[in-house]
Amino acid sequence: MASTRYDVLVIGAGIIGLSSAYHIKQNHPELSVLVIDRAHAVGQGDTAKSNAALRDTFTSTVNRTLARSSIEFYKHVQSEIGFNLNLDLVGYLWLLSENQVREYEAVEAEMRGQGTRLRTVEPDELGDLIPDLVLQPSSQQSGLMGLEGVEKGLFSIDCGTVAPELIVKFYENELKNLGAKFQFGTEAKAIRLAAKKSLGLPGEPLVWQDKVFKEVDTNHGPILADTIVLSAGTRNPQLLDPVGIDCMVKPRKNQLFQLRGSPLQRLLTTKGFNEQNTTPFTILPKGEVYFRPVPRERSLWVGAVAGLGHPFMLEEEPAADETYYAQNIYPVLSEYFPCFANLRPVNMWAGFYDVNSLDSTPIVAGVGNCIITAGLSGSGIMKADSVGRIAAALFDHKDEATLFGDRRISTAKVGLVNRAVEQEKFVI
Ligand SMILES: Cc1cc2nc3c(=O)[nH]c(=O)nc-3n(C[C@H](O)[C@H](O)[C@H](O)COP(=O)(O)OP(=O)(O)OC[C@H]3O[C@@H](n4cnc5c(N)ncnc54)[C@H](O)[C@@H]3O)c2cc1C
């Protein structure tokens, strides 16, 4: 089959591949850029499964920077460019037990020091603002589950929710306007290395030869490219392991459940936190159970962070399981928020976190003429624009990337070789 050649080939049209393609193409409109995806449209992978909540509340400075800049860019797109992203800054509310208040004291002080806008909400005020919240669960079941009382609310102001399908639409439109090409239903099967200077020897590239990434085998034949950007999310390792690159990504299934019903109306119309007069994205003190308001659908999405005890395993068609909700989430949720009692999910779905098993922080790495974006660890929507700008800086062989809002970050920091990031403790 005849092969085609591009200056840049991006594998994966999720939010990360699109942001990377956009920033590279914007800096170099003259280059030919092709984005391929095994799906039939943009944003059909984990981007479509997301809660799409945004926060600048992270324990790691790098994560705070990546998220804050991306959130500001989305604000800019919505308010200054005028492209609606359904960005609602409803805030994040951590309901903390006494132990958690102590555990996060130092981080909270550090975040405040670095400009994260946090408001402490004392229990009395919480009770007034959220009448549906039980501050001190006291039933027999709550005792058995070890549920602790809510000692304090920590409200993070510059956080909220967004529609990822609109962000990917924005990037797709911009890329098309700039002349980038898309090829859907095209699956990368293997990335091929070649000798930088071929001598026509059998078995090239040989160990002593300098190597370049030369082409990608797909179900529609090979595609040659001068630079390959690998943004295949949880499937990155399938393409990188065979060429001996460890991107430290492991897939972990996460499920979301949509709840609707008149008992939830008061929660959905909570006043006192945001302009939207709705409940913030709220995290409960136990089991990392959380809910996200979706006032447009008059519903809440509910989930829990899958951690210890949940396997790292990729499934072709991940499905949510109502039993998981009933056994793992509902018992905690209904003790703190009895308004959920007896409601069953009206919808549910599942996707994967591409967990960076080392430090839960994105990897943006240049390996020769291949740029790898990986390990978004459940927060890829809120960091996508920054990751794309770092990928573009790597493309230009820059040591430093300039993120939206003129924030600078060393590209090596988030790479694979001289990585310098702290272990993230707030993975939600
Ligand atoms: C339940 C759930 C809740 C989440 N909540 C949040 C949240 O609140 N906030 C947040 O910021 N993030 C959240 N995330 C994480 C976020 O969705 C991801 O970090 C983000 O979507 C990753 O984007 P991506 O482009 O890397 O991956 P994807 O969107 O998966 O894109 C990768 C693309 O590559 C394509 N692809 C894969 N292999 C190949 C191949 N071999 N050839 C061609 N194409 C290929 C796929 O089809 C896919 O379109 C959540 C994720 C889940 C599952």
Describe this structure in words.
This protein is an alpha+beta fold. 27% of the residues lie in helices and 27% in strands. The chain is built from ten helices and 20 strands. Strands 1, 2, 8, 9, 10, 11, 17 and 18 form an eight-stranded mixed beta sheet that branches. A hairpin with a 5-residue loop joins strand 13 and strand 14. The longest helix has 21 residues. The site of flavin-adenine dinucleotide has 37 residues, from helix 1, strand 2, strand 12 and strand 16.
Q: How would you describe the shape?
A: elongated
Give me the number of helical elements.
10
The SSE order reads EHEEHEHEHHEEHEEEEHEHEEEHEEEHEE
Helix content: 25-40%
Unreliable stretches: none
Secondary structure: number of strands = 20
Average pLDDT, rounded to a whole number, is: 96
Largest sheet: 8 strands, mixed
What is the quaternary state of this protein? single chain
Ions, cofactors and other ligands present here are: flavin-adenine dinucleotide
- Overall radius of gyration: 22 Å
Q: How large is the share of residues in beta strands?
A: 25-35%
> Which structural class matches the secondary elements?
alpha+beta
From the N-terminal CA to the C-terminal CA, the straight-line distance is 45 Å
Please provide a brief summary of the model.
The chain has 10 helices and 20 strands. The protein is α+β, with helices and mostly antiparallel strands and 428 residues long. The model has no long low-confidence stretch (mean pLDDT 96).
